[in-house]
Specification:
- This protein has 654 residues and is mainly alpha-helical.
- It folds into 2 domains: 261 residues, ABC transporter involved in vitamin B12 uptake, BtuC, CATH 1.10.3470; 303 residues, Orthogonal Bundle (ABC transporter involved in vitamin B12 uptake, BtuC), CATH 1.10.3470.
- Helices cover 73% and strands 1% of the residues.
- It has 27 helices and 2 strands.
- The chain has a two-stranded antiparallel sheet.
- The radius of gyration is 25 Å and the shape is globular.
- Pfam families: FecCD (PF01032).
- It is found in: Cell membrane.
- One of its GO terms (biological process) is siderophore-iron import into cell.
Length: 654
């Protein structure tokens, strides 16, 4: 879709704002239509001090986040950049969680400063990693997702360990626009206004940077200074919004995309229309939520509801997106050879057995110290530890295999069950099972989880197929679906249903309630699916060569892709049942296997499986011992460990 005028973005803006006004007026009109207000009128007080400030806050926050995303996309020449994908919002959220625990007084007078420090640190970390690769889109988005997952995992750990103090933080973290006065709105407006004016001053230099580094420099533009100023403004806008209302990150990605799809091409037009579309999109979503407030829960977070609106919209428009800045899959450096594949795999097997033995026989004693398990206690303790260790190892192995299949199938080193939303699809399947079946057994949970994973995979590849599975289309589809699934779970969790509490704890990836029957079942499923992956290793060797070469060598492309996708979905669904959706192992294990010199599909699959099993087993061991007598879920621990490891790998390979 290509428009030469601004009729497209203006039409979208008018449509969003108009629908929002109609929905808001439906709730406001009956109050204003009263002939005369006499004495105390509760409805009028709510309208003036809650509803109107909330709608104004929606316009301000939507415009600020959209402008932030547009600035990121323009200056980094990256259509996937946004406060969410670059980790900015997650950094601000983590900083506020830490401030609430360590120094609550800071929240009273310096919440903006706390959010800004967190956003800045996260953005600096992401950009430092991107700098080593020339701010390539792939490295920036991967670094941003790594930082986001790490910040989110640490925030979840802190919330779970301090649930009594931070339980209400979940609703705020999902983006709640609820207001009790005009004070927050009037406080945010001048901050966002000044940042918007400063952004307007950068319009001409941003237009020149479209000429490229050399062209802009020849015209007197210092691109490094311009990039720093634009990024600083984008971080500032996102931090202000996160400080005021929590994380509403999807607007920063979808609003510039909509502006670009409907005809905004030049820098000035893109920033202007992105801001208006973002304001209209959040205003429309919040107006719809207010209209439904009497019929559902009025505490539902607007950020989650916005993702429910925005994700399908982005998926529908995804085939029309024509990006100038392709997200290319970068060719990795030659891996470090530490020996023959057989020797490497033998060392990996020995390491895996050592980790399993450590998890079974070493831990905290009754006095709180570290000690090996006494042989006299084997009969009492090992039946408690063994199911957890077996389930963790099997789940980590399955996630690693799923990640490797997806990376080789798509030719994208960033592909994994977590990043592409497949684990989120499994979560949605289990969520449906919990709310549809009173007490789903393991088989029913596995069926629902696998169905959810496969559904997400099918949608991703359906919407990305027209572009030949171009990485930016696949990533955008995965981000959109992950946001939509997270939104569904967030809405359920904020609804107050007691089943949502169970769901949130399950999502953290705890093996605490795993029984011997469940562990053996997961292990048997893992053996069957991993054996199937081994049988398909020839396809995994040939598909990265490209469809033409693979087809010429006898690979049935359609059936091969379908079977591999089904296998990846089944592996992800089965593993997610035990360790939750936020594990990170599916992204990390194939990278580590490649780092130790395993490049062919067969050895790399075995190596990734061993590494994935070791990582998840070690995560479970640390989770139940490091803060004894409390426990941290294995899925969260693996994310906390995995993010720094991936950051180090990215720096080494840059």
């Amino acid at each position: 879709m290509s428009l030469t005028s601004h009729a497209g973005p203006s039409l979208v803006t008018v449509l969003l704002v108009g629908l929002g006004v109609l929905l808001a007026w439906h709730g406001i009109a009956p109050i204003l239509a009263r002939p005369e207000l006499q004495g105390y009128d509760a409805d009028y007080v709510v309208l003036y001090n809650a509803t109107l400030p909330r709608l104004a806050m929606a316009l301000i926050c939507g415009g600020a986040l959209a402008l932030s995303g547009a600035l990121f996309q323009q200056v980094l020449r990256n259509p996937l950049a946004s406060p969410t994908t670059l980790g900015v919002s997650a950094g601000a959220n983590l900083a506020i969680v830490l401030a609430l625990l360590l120094s609550p007084g800071l929240i009273g007078w310096g919440r903006d400063l706390v959010a800004l420090v967190g956003s800045t640190l996260a953005a600096c970390l992401v950009l430092l990693m991107g700098l080593r690769r020339g701010f390539s889109p792939f490295s920036l988005v991967m670094a941003g997702l790594v930082v986001s997952l790490w910040c989110g995992a640490l925030s979840s750990v802190l919330v779970l360990l301090n649930e009594r103090y931070l339980v209400s933080l979940f609703i705020w973290g999902a983006g709640s626009l609820s207001q009790q006065s005009w004070t927050p709105t009037l406080s945010l407006l001048p901050k966002v206004g000044l940042a918007a004016v400063a952004s307007a001053l950068l319009l001409r230099p941003l237009a020149l940077i479209e000429l490229g580094e050399a062209g802009a420099t020849a015209l007197g533009v210092k691109t490094s200074h311009l990039r720093a100023m634009a990024i600083a403004l984008a971080v500032l806008l996102a931090a202000f919004v996160t400080s005021a209302v929590g994380v509403i990150g999807f607007i920063g990605l979808v609003a510039p995309t909509l502006a670009r799809l409907t005809g905004a091409r030049r820098s000035g037009a893109l920033l202007f229309w992105s801001t208006l579309i973002g304001a209209g999109l959040l205003f429309f979503a919040d107006s719809a939520l207010l209209l439904l407030a009497d019929k559902v829960n009025d505490m539902l977070p607007t950020g989650a509801v916005t993702a429910l609106f925005g994700s399908p919209l982005l998926l529908v428009l995804l085939p029309l997106l024509k990006t100038r800045h392709r997200v290319m899959v970068e060719r990795a450096l030659r891996p470090r050879q530490i020996g023959s594949p057989g020797r490497v795999l033998l060392l990996g097997f020995i390491g895996a057995m050592a980790v399993v033995a450590l998890a079974l026989l070493f831990g905290r004693s009754v006095t709180g110290g570290w000690a090996f398990l006494s042989p006299s206690l084997y009969g009492d303790i090992l039946p408690l530890r063994f199911p957890r260790v077996l389930a963790a190892f099997a789940s980590g192995a399955m996630l690693a295999a799923a990640g490797l299949i997806l990376q080789r199938l798509t030719g994208n080193e960033m592909a994994s069950p977590e990043v592409l939303g497949i684990s989120a699809g499994a979560t949605l399947g289990v969520t449906i099972a919990v709310f549809v079946v009173a007490d789903p057994n393991l088989g029913e949970q596995l069926g629902f989880a696998a169905t959810g994973s496969l559904a997400v995979l099918a949608i991703i590849f359906l919407f990305a197929a027209r572009s030949g599975l171009a990485p930016e289309r696949v990533l955008l589809a995965g981000i959109a679906l992950s946001a939509m699934v997270d939104a569904v779970v967030g809405v359920l969790a904020a609804s107050g249903d007691p089943r949502a509490s169970f769901l949130m704890r399950w999502m953290s990836g705890s093996t605490y309630n795993v029984t011997m029957t469940g562990a053996v079942s997961v292990a048997v499923i893992a053996v069957i699916l991993l054996f199937a992956a081994g049988l398909l290793r020839r396809w995994l060797d040939l598909l990265p060569l490209g469809p033409s070469a693979a087809g010429a060598l006898g690979v049935p492309l359609a059936s091969a892709r379908l079977l591999l996708l089904l296998l990846a979905g089944a592996l992800s669904g089965a593993a997610t049942l035990t360790v939750g959706p936020l594990s990170f192992v599916g992204l990390m294990a194939p990278h580590l296997a490649r780092e130790v010199g395993l490049t062919r599909a067969g050895p790399q699959t075995i190596g990734a499986v061993l590494i994935g099993g070791m990582l998840m087993t070690m995560a479970d061991f640390l989770g139940r011992t490091i803060v004894h007598p409390y426990e941290i879920a294995a899925g969260l621990v693996s994310a906390l460990i995995g993010a720094p490891v991936l950051i180090l790998l990215m720096r080494r390979r840059a």
